Write the structure tokens for this entry.
Amino acid sequence: MSAARPLTTLRTIAVIASLPVLLTACGYGSESTDEGGKSAVAAGAEKLSADEVKIGYFPNLTHATALVGVQEGLLQKELGGTTIKASTFNAGPSEIEALNAGSIDIGWIGPSPAINGYTKSDGKNLRIIGGSASGGVKLVVDPKKIKSLDDVKGKKIATPQLGNTQDVAFLNWIADKGWKVDAQSGKGDVSVVRTDNKITPDAYKSGSIDGAWVPEPTASKLVAEGAEVLLDESDLWPDKKFVITNIIVSQKFLKQHPDVVEAVLRGSVKTNEWINANPDKAKASANTALEKLSGKALPAGVLDPAWKSVTFLDDPLAATLDAEAEHAVKAGLLEKPDLKSIYDLTLLNKVLKAEGKDTVDDAGLGAR
């Protein structure tokens, strides 16, 4: 495998090393929460090659495969006597750090932190082993100030974090419009205001931003405050699909416990199948899980539209991850990365074939 070039995104990181702003999935901060308790195991269930598997994910609807899979016991069922230890994270960097430290073995995570984690380790610390979700990202705006896409010029639009997945997508869209913005400062024909998703609704209500390019459920929270959806990012992609959540694994764990990894992937595939066959039950299950994690469930006015905009699927949509990396390069946030071997879809395709489903492609970026 060719050595991956080191990531040099976000030049300000060299100066402000404490800021957790390396390519993150959704920009909800950097804290993680150890859920502590292990999943209930059926009496007499046989263990696989590991006593436990440590998994990580975000308390976000775009990570509903993990939320529902744990909540409904669908992941644990496939693992038999091997227990799940779950931790939740609020940003990509902390989850990558946990993977590197061995605090988690497998994680659900967005494309940008997966790329970042892979390139920073010269391709040695992780593999993307499956897909989980597509979509769930929107440009929402104040309809009194912005009535068309052209009206975005000159306005203040929030993204979750400098260089995160949505920030890169918005910068790419701006460039396609022919407008100029300095990626680092966010200043130019559009003011790109990097704002933590937790405070974006308040920033909108105060009038300090005119809109936001954000993931769900933040987009629907803004709509509940009077904003309108101006653009769904899905409309910019072929077949209206682009990766928003991948499944990654520590290469060490993959090598030592392939049977456990296969069981988790089988549980993920069966969870996605259950979600798509039972959307209302799955939506309620995800919201119950969110309530347990955050102490507050999403109201129906936010939950319903947010849920509809996310597609749950097993395909990692590898070609779109490669395109997202190119968008970051074009924005000046990333040196051209070597992503060869970032994927290992062997076990996923084994599971899909056994389940009678179509296998998926790694877009030429698979381990050989």
